[in-house]
Design goal:
The protein has about 775 residues and is an alpha/beta fold. It is built from 31 helices and 33 strands. The radius of gyration is 25 Å and the shape is globular. Bound molecules: ligand MGD (2 copies) and molybdenum atom. One ligand MGD binds next to helix 10, helix 18, strand 25 and strand 26.
Amino acid sequence: MKQEKIEFYKGPAGGWGALNSVKNALLRQDIPLKGAKTLLSANQPDGFDCPGCAWPDRNHASTFEFCENGVKAVAAEATARRAGPSLFAQYTVAELAGQSDFWLEDQGRLTQPMVYHAPSDQYRPIAWDDAFALIARHLNALPDPDQAIFYTSGRASNEAAFLYQLFVRQYGTNNFPDCSNMCHEPSGSGMRPQIGVGKGTVTLHDFECADAIFIFGQNPGTNHPRMLGELREAHKRGARIVSFNPLRERGLERFADPQDKLEMATLGSTPISTHYFQLRVGGDLPAVKGMMKHVLEQEDARGGVLDHAFIAEHTTGFDALAADLRAESWALLEQESGLTEAQMRSAADIYIGAKSVIACWGMGITQHKHAVATIQGIVSLLMMRGNIGREGAGPCPVRGHSNVQGDRTMGIWEKPPAALLDRLRDVFGFEPPRKNGVDTVEAIRQMLDGKGKVFFALGGNFAAATPDTYETWKALQRCDLTVHVTTKLNRSHIVHGKEALILPCLGRTEIDVQAGGPQGVTVEDSMSMVHISVGINPPASEHLLSEPAIVARLAAATLGARSNVPWLWLVEDYARIRDQIEKVFPDFKDFNRRVAVPGGFRLRNTASERVWATASGKASFHAHAVPRDTPSHIARERYKDAVVFTLLTTRSHDQYNTTIYGMDDRYRGVYGQRRVVFINDKDIRALGMQDGDWVDIQTVWSDGQERRAERFKLVAYDIPRGNLAAYYPETNPLVPLSAVADTAGTPTSKSIPVLLLPHVPGGAALAGTTVPAQAEAP
Ligand SMILES: Nc1nc2c(c(=O)[nH]1)N[C@H]1C(S)=C(S)[C@@H](COP(=O)(O)OP(=O)(O)OC[C@H]3O[C@@H](n4cnc5c(=O)[nH]c(N)nc54)[C@H](O)[C@@H]3O)O[C@H]1N2
Ligand SMILES: Nc1nc2c(c(=O)[nH]1)N[C@H]1C(S)=C(S)[C@@H](COP(=O)(O)OP(=O)(O)OC[C@H]3O[C@@H](n4cnc5c(=O)[nH]c(N)nc54)[C@H](O)[C@@H]3O)O[C@H]1N2
Ligand SMILES: [Mo]
């Protein structure tokens, strides 16, 4: 185990640290440096789409863009290690349960389908056909198809996702919880009624033209490293880059491009943010309202600030917003945002001074109770000066998983629009279920209640990624059958139903040969660009099936003569699947031809053309009150004598969601450990504790359930008082199932009211320090 240390990181993001870390990542996976050439095929015209993040590639056709975390993601899949039947013969599931998440994935790629054998408490090999027959038997025995739940993680290709939603709807349910429910759901929920599309409107070209780029609640240095390249270029040509974040994130401050020989040789770097507003956790809506208020006041004072023509021609609701802003008090905005009036005004002056503005946001915005309101506030701010649907301007929610946006486009959606269902009916001649299905949180509830009986996951790690960990585990364990289509062993396979299957699949980096020859799949990035991805590495095992093949064979086994879809014929050649996609989605017209062009094509985005697919035919301004009813507000009110903190949960530099690559978080100066909690130095002293002390974190909630995560080290950090930050997924036991974003249902993983308690080994001394039971439900 590497030495644990905390050491302030002085270098820029990227640079030599990144190259070094890449070398270590390859060595860790037993990949010889010499053979690492495959990695260079990520995002090449004839290579695979990087399974890292959803940030688009500069034309997906020319140079390899170096990305440290992209290489780590590819290396994790291309690992030389194998978790085959001999591993499972060695351990009972109870023994595997005692291993860390890191250890589980570190065993390497799964090689064969495995079935749980209860008498021995072990997983044993099973033939593919037997596995499909087992699932089919369970599904067909359910009296109501809504008792089955079909989860999706955002790596599934368009082809796999399309077949999956078709199969599940023919089976009879819309129960499609997905990772998006925990991620950018509020972005869609906010923007769809507002501008008629649930996606961002900008392209990389707009990043070349923007005069100002506002970044809310996002850590691109770690999570979207290739975005730093765009920000760096923008900065060099004089654009303003304005960050809003409670933490000082290194990747938002300085960046050295590992492909810039001069910077690397001279240890130079480029500043990223020109302005950094360190607001309070959850303070974005008041901060944005302060900015809008200043814009309005400047219009009143000197005119020419608002885009009157845009507002008149394209929007509704401006007068109501203006009235709301005029009535807003600066004192309240300051108190709730953690920024001063002067700071909000200066941020707004940058906004006013720029002709074209892009606003980006990530999980720091979406994982809050008032996420939808905040997003509508950000888009309203943009619209005040017509910053949408023209060059260099627009909203840019930056998606996470590499095809999470495409999966939703393909119909992985628990609330399918009627138009989609009508198309499916017309094209495939069946009546799809009309009732909305369950989202992620609702799925957990239904399994807990015994209504959800079969849980099937196309990728992901449901047991670790979701809130209220132990409740989720109970939920999964109550199922009659749990099935995971997966590349590596993870917690979700260990916390299983009465019967359980692990179905190993090809990864995106691997060659996928079907009857019709080698196949490519398609994905859609965060800017609606659709392109092809072709694997180039030999499969990790000869027994692996592709995701489309798994779905097709399962559909054929389950639906039999009930389905008129030629499942097995479709997967012989994925171009046939794309022909079906085109029939259902007119925007994919000529799909096979257009996706064969290097770089692919962009899906139509009506809002980017100033065509508003909303009920009123216009874009709308939305006025939202400054939130004062969040769980943190309620908890502080109730616990006047205690120090109630608001905890945000975030990613370290060495992880991909629940996959932990290593124990370092270089840019935040954390090495060899993950159980740390970042806290303001003054708060440490106010608690009578010291930097480096061990604490337990306990949620303040009021359903009588105790939620605690134990043994975290206090790390003094540049973070506002009253706020804490710690890593996910270790902190997921702290997120109550009932803590969700209004109207979007997203777990509020960025704002959990908590208390810090001194950690006592064994926890015995904690008796009596639990949250009083009389607290009300927030
Ligand atoms: N290497 C790597 N890449 C990834 C991932 C990964 O785990 N590893 N995950 C992928 C996925 S699925 C996603 S969704 C994205 C996630 O990418 P991000 O959206 O960057 O997600 P987080 O790491 O959760 O970081 C959120 C940022 O929001 C800040 N923040 C927290 N609360 C607030 C707040 O109230 N207001 C503001 N303004 N800021 C706040 C945090 O300090 C942090 O900087 O990345 C994708 N890419
Ligand atoms: N507290 C807290 N919780 C959060 C978040 C947070 O910020 N804080 N973030 C949320 C967000 S934004 C997201 S997106 C979710 C992520 O939730 P998920 O998408 O469910 O989780 P991942 O960790 O990305 O899934 C990793 C697993 O995917 C499998 N896998 C990898 N590649 C493939 C593939 O090609 N095919 C298949 N079939 N399987 C594959 C591997 O087995 C790996 O173990 O977590 C959410 N949970
Ligand atoms: Mo995500």
